[in-house]
Amino acid sequence: MLFALKNGVCGYSADKPVLRNINFQVAAGEVLCILGANGVGKSTLFKSMLGLIRMLGGSVTVDGADISQWSRAEIARTIGYIPQANNPPFSYSVLDVILMGRTAYLGMFASPQKEDERIAEGVVEQLNIARLIDKRYQELSGGERQLVLIARALAQLPKILIMDEPTAALDFGNQQMVLNQIYRLSEKGLSIIMASHFPDHAFLYSHKALLLKDGGIYSTGSPNQVITEHSLRDLYAVETKIINTGILPRSAVTGSTDIKVCVPLS
């Protein structure tokens, strides 16, 4: 399944768009990591792609079909959205949160049926989070909450996952827990588009990187091509040294011969 954004214009006012001329595509099994400074428009881009705010120009297509013509339920059955970890106002169980992902398949006022529960249980097994199933969502750690949000999205049976900074505010261990699951999902054939504040994540877990700056695309391509000391200085106004560690990666997602890390110098 091919997700494509062509000539995208995103924002809340036609007179002052946030992003212009955004073009990219993500094939089945690929991970695209979007990088850019705070306020550059990553969340606006995601909301536009999902139809939560109207595209000001351009098109979003899945296998050539313009999704602006789809119903909300049709979009939800194809594209899963994973926001940054949130705090719901009610004390839902983990199972209840995951079952919310089945809403797109339920009729008005309908309740989850045995088939919905079976799908939820399958997702729990896939993500290896059975230990969480009897807990309340609000009792979980940040990393555990993100895994539950991933499970909720997977219960939609999507082909594409859009993830808005899935490791934001997580400690190192929880970051790795979530990122490892993201890569495993790509191995199963899902197309994944995620925003991150960490260039290292793109080196380790992404096939493609897209850098945003000044209302448009600064650069796009493989992480090794576009994430450079020069581009990081331009994006974040920070002097950075990119170091080849010489350590062979466990999963050579980008095809590189060793792992790269970014070290800020100022």
Notes on the protein architecture:
The protein is an alpha/beta fold and 266 residues long. It folds into two domains: 226 residues, P-loop containing nucleotide triphosphate hydrolases (Rossmann fold), CATH 3.40.50.300; 38 residues, no CATH class. Helix content is 31%, strand content 24%. The protein contains nine helices and twelve strands. A six-stranded mixed β-sheet has the order 6-7-8-3-9-10, with helices on both faces. The longest helix is centred in the last third of the chain and has 16 residues. The radius of gyration is 19 Å and the shape is globular. The mean pLDDT is 89. Keywords: ATP-binding, Nucleotide-binding, Transport.
Q: What oligomeric state do these chains adopt? A: single chain
CATH superfamily of the largest domain: P-loop containing nucleotide triphosphate hydrolases
What string gives the helices and strands in order? Answer: EEEHEEHEHHHEHEHEEHHEE
- CATH class of the largest domain, named Alpha Beta
Mean pLDDT: 89
Number of domains: 2
Structural class: alpha/beta
Rg computed from alpha carbons, rounded to a whole number of angstroms? 19 Å
Q: How many individual β-strands?
A: 12
Protein name: ABC-type cobalamin/Fe3+-siderophore transport system, ATPase component
Pfam family, one: ABC_tran
Domain ABC transporter: 3-239
GO molecular function: ATP binding; ATP hydrolysis activity
